[in-house]
Design goal:
Layout (H helix, E strand, L loop, with lengths): L24 E4 L2 E4 H17 L7 E5 L4 H8 L1 H4 L2 E4 L7 H10 L3 E5 L3 H7 L5 E5 L3 H7 L11 E2 H6 L14 E4 L9 E4 L4 H15 L6 E4 L6 H12 L3 E4 L5 H11 L3 E4 L1 H8 L3 H5 L8 E4 L6 H11 L3 E7 L3 E6 L1 H6 L3 E3 L6 E5 L13 E6 L7 E3 L3 H6 L1 E2 L2 E2 L3 E5 L5 E6 L4 E3 L2 E3 L1 H8 L5 E11 L3 E10 L7 H11 L8 E4 L13 H9 L10
Parallel strand pairs: 1-11, 3-4, 3-5, 5-6, 6-7, 10-11, 10-12, 12-13, 13-14, 27-28
Antiparallel strand pairs: 1-2, 8-9, 9-19, 14-15, 16-23, 17-18, 18-22, 20-21, 22-23, 24-25, 26-27
Helix pairs in contact: 1-2, 11-13
């Protein structure tokens, strides 16, 4: 008989909205649990996972949207030495099937409305654990009244029926984060376990970068299946901070939570900045955001104009870092540096370093010359490999420096600037073209909300340029106007040959474009250009 769902203990009180003077809590919608309760429930869930066959070194997948139970599931790994694998819940087809096979997950914890898709893709023998969908998640995604299937053990049932485990197994990696798969199949980044001394170094660096402090108040508006917010949540829990989890980002709700909870620190992505800046001035001014002390952003490029507008609004509290799931953060900048060096993502901190190498010769390049970016992690950051692909892991390293496939340069002062991704570079008629430059140009065109530029097959030149453009509501444009705008600002060979107007460009929740999805239609023999104007 399957464990029946037991309602999580919650606190629902308007008097606690501002955090009060009680114990630090983890908030999600109208629910709250103390951090102590969350950790105690995680220890019980650990026992339930062990009883389900998950042991030291085993991996289990988490296919859930943002809520308290996501954090509980992640924290449940350590007591039994297991490895959590947070999953982008949007991956319901081949990507999910690949991840579940590739990771070797012995169990999957999934929200009730996602169970069917998970079971359809899970290999035989994988244990399925059902997590009840809380009201705030159902409301945020318009799911209606989602009922538990009753066919599987439940997360709450495992917690209720097991005694807590308090012993942490030492011999296990830290965790697995799968890359977003914007250009190919997702890769599992398996990070090695590190010593207590190195953990302290990483925590110290993270506290300095993210503005975290014991007992502080932080907000998590980004999906916990991504590396940066996942790490942020775990660091905050380790510091016994008051944590507010947003099931889904909404700009007005974000401002309301900052005001009502007196939030001090938050980690965001540039697309959130854009949505905040689109709010009417009177809405933006109606919220008190003075409690914020640190806004950190990463994961995707941020236009200098957007960065300046956010700094003008919130003050000089904005920080940026650049790195990757593989290598962690290795360059950072604060507001003053961002304003003094528009477009930079920062310079090395906390014992990290950066090198720019020639794509073909591997030689180190001088300041101002674009090449492949290689970084060395902050001191103490764990080493890693790709699950089942050590060869690819070795290919991306040069003398202890790791590349995540970006192209950029450093200026004379040592500040790093991104220009594009190696995989996005287009070679047309023997000329190297970097789409990011064209995208930045088109974002300055009136009426353009979003843009993706990439290479498509061309019989004459090998590759030519395609631009997919999302317009602002009510805006109009033609392909001819787009080409003329680019030709006015850039060299003629950088003018897109194909221009397509899309209603909604495919981005993940961290703001990364899924150019792979756009390219795929051009690989089909029947690809249509009927939407070209």
């Amino acid at each position: 008989m399957k464990n029946q769902a037991i309602r999580k203990p919650t606190v629902r009180s308007d008097s606690l909205e501002a955090g009060g003077s009680g114990e630090p809590r983890v908030w999600s919608g109208g629910r709250a649990q103390t951090v102590v309760e969350v950790k105690a429930r995680a220890a019980r869930l650990a026992a339930g996972l062990r009883a389900s066959g998950v042991g030291p070194g085993d991996r289990f997948a988490i296919v859930m949207r943002n809520e308290i139970a996501f954090l509980e599931a992640t924290l449940a790994a350590a007591p039994i030495g297991a490895v959590p694998v947070p999953v982008n819940w949007h991956w319901m087809g081949s990507d999910l099937a690949h991840l579940l096979r590739d990771s070797g997950a012995k169990a999957v914890i999934a929200h009730s409305d996602l169970i069917g898709a998970v079971v359809a893709q899970a290999p035989e023998g994988v244990v399925v654990i059902e997590a009840e969908v809380p009201a705030e998640v159902a409301d945020a995604y318009g799911l209606g009244d989602v009922r538990a299937t009753g066919r599987y053990d439940t997360l709450d049932g495992l917690i209720a029926s097991n005694e807590p485990i308090s012993v942490v197994t030492d011999q296990t990696p830290m965790g697995v984060i799968y890359t977003s798969g914007t250009t190919g199949l997702p890769k599992g980044v398996l990070r090695n376990r590190i010593s207590v001394e190195d953990q302290a170094k990483v925590l110290k660096a993270s506290m300095g970068l993210l503005g975290l402090r014991p007992g502080g108040k932080t907000l998590l508006p980004a999906p916990l299946y991504h590396a940066a917010p996942n790490n942020h949540a775990l660091f905050a829990a380790a510091l016994d901070m008051d944590i507010t989890i947003m099931p889904k980002f909404d700009p007005v709700e974000f401002l309301r939570l900052v005001e009502s909870r007196r939030i001090e620190s938050v980690q965001m992505v540039p697309t959130m900045f854009t949505r905040l800046l689109r709010l009417p001035t009177e809405v933006r001014k109606s919220f008190d955001v003075s409690s914020l002390q640190v806004i950190v952003h990463a994961a995707a490029p941020c236009a200098p104009e957007t960065k300046k507008a956010i700094i003008d609004w919130f003050g000089p509290i904005v920080r940026e870092y650049y790195g990757g799931s593989e290598v962690g953060p290795f360059v950072m900048c604060d507001s003053a540096e961002a304003l003094a060096h528009p477009g930079t993502v920062g310079k090395p901190r906390f014992g990290s370093d950066v090198r720019i190498l020639d794509m073909f010769t591997g030689e180190r390049l001088p300041a101002g010359t674009p090449g492949v970016i290689y970084g060395r992690s902050v001191e103490g950051w764990p080493d890693f490999t790709y699950i089942g692909n050590d060869a690819e892991r070795r290919e991306i390293e040069q003398d202890g420096y790791i590349t995540v496939g970006d192209i950029g340069y450093v200026d004379d002062d040592g500040y790093l600037y991104l220009t594009d991704r190696v995989s996005d570079m287009v070679i047309s008629g023997g000329v190297n073209i970097y789409p990011a430059e064209i995208e930045a140009c088109l974002m300055r065109m009136d009426g353009v909300a979003d843009v993706a530029v990439f290479g498509i097959p061309d019989d004459e030149f090998g590759e030519s340029l395609a631009a997919h453009i999302e317009l602002l509501p009510g805006a109009e444009a033609t392909a001819g106007a787009v080409r003329d705008f680019v030709a006015t600002h850039l060299a003629r060979y950088k003018v897109p040959r194909v221009v397509v107007f899309d209603d909604d460009l495919p981005r993940d929740d961290s703001g990364k474009l899924f150019k792979r999805r756009l390219r795929e239609q051009y690989r089909r023999p029947t690809a249509s250009t009927e939407r070209h104007r």
